[in-house]
Amino acid sequence: MTQAMKIAAGSVAVGIVVLGIKTLSWWLTGSVALLSDALESIVNVATALAALLALNIAQQPPDADHPFGHHKAEYFSAVLEGVLIVVAAILILREAWHAWNDPRIIEAPWLGLAINIVASVINAIWCTVLIRNGRRLNSPALEADGKHLLTDVVSSVGVTVGVTAAVLTGWAWLDPLLAALVAVNIIWSGWQVMRHSVGGLMDEAAPEGEVEQIRSLISANADGAVEAHDLRSRRAGSALFVEFHLVVPGEMTVDAAHDICDRIETALHAAFEKSRVTIHVEPEHKAKHDGIVVL
Questions:
Q1: CATH superfamily of the domain spanning 3-201
Q2: What pTM does this model have?
Q3: pLDDT of amino acid 256
């Protein structure tokens, strides 16, 4: 099992524990805002399971039907997360509407809030782990799961403040109003997750910082070539695909040109662990004089 899959499995376990804690908090208080918090935790468990499944598919090696690998499975997981987040928001809005029309007194508020704070602390710690490792491992599924969990933490803080205000002021309408605000925040989070994932499915170029690093590595390791041009890159989950044309002197032997390609590929693989590099070698008269200058 890869490190990313171990973290994803941990998310499932954490999600189930937090769901149980938040459900207990709602059961003790009857607060619709705390119910909305618990409903979002159900989505957390579902999205953690989806991320685990996607990572299991993504790590499978290329085959005859998928010669470029299965890395994009992580993006499908992130899109599913976004959809589930929106569904959770709709359920919360429904509960908030019923509570607005029929306000209820919040029972045992302080014990319920204390229990809910424990769940929020667990989520805050775990979302930090997910986001940090998602970026380190270039895993869209883990990072999307972490960002979604961060939204849950923000929502929980708002719920805690709002329910406290409702109890202290006696304004029962604050409870459903807060639940509705949580739902809006969740919808925004779902949109952000889906927008990022669709970009990956549409083969967006690698981030600008990575592209500049790729250009520098090609330039520094292409001694003997004339130039490189038509550089293209894309991210597919943890994999980075790089393609470009390398112009060499017309009299250069195939062996010499191949040695240059090997140097460049070695440098790129060292910098980007799961990179896939394709180099098209061209003779000198194909130079465009507007690409990567060889140092």
A1: Cation efflux protein transmembrane domain (1.20.1510.10)
A2: 0.60
A3: 94
